[in-house]
Structure formats: C-alpha cells, structure tokens
Amino acid sequence: MAAYLVTGVAGFIASRVAEMLLADGHTVVGVDNLNDYYDVRLKDHRLGRLLDEPGWHAGTESNQSRHADAGRQSRADGRFVFEPVDVEDLRGLERLFAEFKFAAVFNLAARAGVRYSLENPHIYLTTNAHGTLNLLECQRKFGVRKQVLASTSSLYAGCPMPFNEEQPVNTPLSPYAASKKAAEAMAHSYCKMHDLDVTVARFFTVFGPAGRPDMSIFRFIQWMLAGRPIQLNGDGHQGRDFTYVDDIARGTILAAKPVGYEIVNLGGGRAPISLRAVIGVLETELGVKAHLEERPKAAADIETSQADIAKADRLLSWKPTISNEEGLRRTVRWHLENQDWLRAVRL
User: Fold this and answer.
1) How far apart, in Å, are the Cα atoms of 309 and each of 166, 249, 266, 316?
2) Which residue, among 24, 142, 34, has the nearest Cα to 83 in the 3D structure?
3) How confident is the model over 244-254, as pLDDT tens digits?
4) Buried-most residue among 166, 257, 324, 333 (CB within 10 A)?
C-alpha cells in the first residue's frame, strides 16, 4: 500500500480524505498547523478520530488544540502519522519528504472563507499560494510527481451557469478566490517546467458531519437547536450546488490518477437549492421551527452556483451519490449525537 501526504489533515474535507485512504489500507502522513481561525475543538475532534483515540471527545477549551504542542503523534498501527507542520514551513515539509516516499500529495490545507479574506487577505496569500509553492518545490526536489490541489467554485463569479472548467476565471471577487487562482497558476507552471502532474479539484459548497462552524448549515443547525434566530446574509433565495463531504472526499482520492495538469469540478451537479429550502429540510429533521433574521448580502458572495460535472465523470468516473436530503439527515444526526460539546463551539 502507498503512503500519502495530506495537508490540512485536521480540516473538514482533508480529515475525511485521510479516513478513506486509511480504510483502503494506505499509510497517511498528515500535517496541520491547527490554527484558531475557527474553534479548534472541531479540528481536535477530527484528529482524534484519525489517531483512533478510544473514548476521546472534544474538550471544553476552545482557544488551544490539545494536539498542537504534542509533536509527532501516531496511531497504534503506525499507518497514520500526524505532524503539527505548517505548509508555509518549507524546512518542516522537506524533513517529511526526506523521511517518507510519498505516492502523491493531497494539498487540502487552506485558509478558507470568502468573508474573512476581506478582513485579513495576507494570510490567504501566504497559506494558499506560498504554501502550495512550498509543496511543489518539495515534489520537484524529492521526485513526487502527483498533487491533488483543492480549489474553489468561488472562482466562477460572473460566469454563466452551469460552471465548467473551460470558462475563464480571471475576475475573482475576494482575496480567497484570488489566492486559489494563484495556487492553480503556480501548479500549472510547475507541471510545464518540471513535468509534475496536478489535478485541481474545484469544490462546490461542501457540507456534512463535523463541518466548519463558519459555514451556513453548521450554524443553522446550532442556532435552531439553541432557539436562536438564523442570521441570513440576503433574503435566503440565493442558491448553492451543495455537495456532501463523502462524495467530495471520494472524488478527491480519484483525482490522484495520472492525468497531467487538469481542472475538475467536484459538485452536486444538480439544480441549485436555496438556503430557504435547506432550512425547510432542517426544520423537518430537527422538528424545530426556524426564525429568520435577514441581513445585507455580502458583496463577495456568488448569488447562485451550479457545477457542470461532466468532466469529472469522463476523467475520473466520478458522480455524487448522496442526495442533499440524505446528507442533511446525516449531518443533523451527527449534531444531535455530539451536542454535549457542540453547544459550546464558537460560531
């Protein structure tokens, strides 16, 4: 079985990718700086699952990760190794590339979130662009040809729907989208100059259990359970191509096949579903009536998104299999099972 490097391994999508790789018998070396952009209890929860810490659950402290200062940690069977390394730390990455022979890199570490990138654009460029450059340099130096680079549907702002990979994406509306465009461009240059093989996976509105607390569905569920009004940015009729996290993780792993430099949409490929429709499903699943509080729409938000996923089907034999309704049902179930610590999570 192969060894893979997964960056941002304590993150929402990366942790699920790592779990699937481990289930297939592979070895995973995961890195993450465990920053506190959002409540680190979520990151510790995901990392605890990967380390197979029996009986462990997220603690009560929200400002410091229990894993951050522990150094290297390994699962009992040795097939998962965690290093608290930042992708901006080139020397730290080089040590891992020298120690392990990676079959591929899943570059899922990122500063995410459109709105926060407007407040703090510098960290988006250093993590998303410079971090990607560090990984590409390590691949060139140590002979690791394949990378799967996580990118975003936010790049399609202003394009006609459904969004397809051939459309020009030269007018990003946020520093987040611009930093991802920079990462894509850097990866393209390394493919041409150094014969690397990079698949860029543009993700569309991922949701599911243990998601990010700055994302709408996580917040909606927690607000509804707490009896608080749902804060909507806009009137709630904006649509999204929601995609369940297991489908995204499966597509990300399939994207590790050798294809040369390619950009591939990973999205639901269905008609967009409005936030108000999502809230309606959550009301049914939770048995709670939502109270809505409309706020001004964020200028950097795309009004509607819809993925053309024909290329993912053709190139990777990938299609999503989990419906929005089933995905929301599973997400609600996870929230209800973990309310003992989730109710304290910072939203």
Assistant:
1) 12, 15, 7, 10
2) 34
3) 999 999 999 99
4) 324
Nearest to 7 by CA among 112, 130, 107, 128: 107
Residues tagged active-site: 176
User: Which run of H or E residues covers position 286?
Assistant: helix 275-286
Say how far apart CA 265 and CA 252 lie, in whole Å: 10
DSSP-derived 3-state class of residue 239 = strand
CA 213/CA 11 separation, integer angstroms: 11
Residue 296: Cβ within 10 Å count: 7
Q: CA-to-CA distance for 88 and 110, rounded, in angstroms?
A: 11
Q: In sequence order, what E strands does the chain have? A: 3-7, 27-31, 73-74, 80-83, 104-107, 146-152, 197-203, 206-207, 230-233, 239-240, 243-244, 262-266, 273-274, 292-295
Q: What is the pLDDT of residue 175?
A: 87
121 vs 134: CA distance, rounded Å: 19
What is d(CA 290, CA 231) in angstroms, rounded to the nearest whole number?
Answer: 10
Q: How many other β-carbons are positioned within 10 Å of the β-carbon of residue 307?
A: 28
In 3D space, the residue among 180, 173, 87, 170 whose CA is nearest the CA of residue 125 turns out to be: 180
Q: What is the mean pLDDT of residues 253-277?
A: 95
Q: What does pLDDT average to over the chain? A: 92
Cis peptide leading into 162, omega within 30 of 0? yes
Q: How many CA atoms lie within 13 A of 223 on its CB side?
A: 21
For residue 200, what are the β-bridge partners?
Answer: 149, 263
Residues 157-193: tens digit of each pLDDT: 889 989 999 999 988 888 898 999 999 999 999 999 9
